[in-house]
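We close this part of the discussion by returning to an individual protein. The encoding preserves chain order, so positions in sequence and tokens coincide. The sequence in question and its structure tokens are set out directly beneath this paragraph:

===
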Amino acid sequence: MLLLCRLTASLKKRLMSAYNLDKVAAIQWGVNHEPTAIDLYKRLGAEVKETGNMHIMFIENILLF
């Protein structure tokens, strides 16, 4: 089923705005624990590639994120 909705000015503003997520608890936790997670992925045999602000993890050629 295809649902069409009208793009209101307020919805457009919310979708197009940049949000600072630094204060979100889940984001803070991820930033604080990223080195541990990378180390654990490497122990599993993952190849970790840094791409700017992100890390991409590969385990047996499967892209995790």
Q: What stands out?
A: The longest strand covers residues 54-59. The beta strands are 47-51, 54-59, 62-63. The chain has two helices and three strands. The longest helix spans residues 25-43.
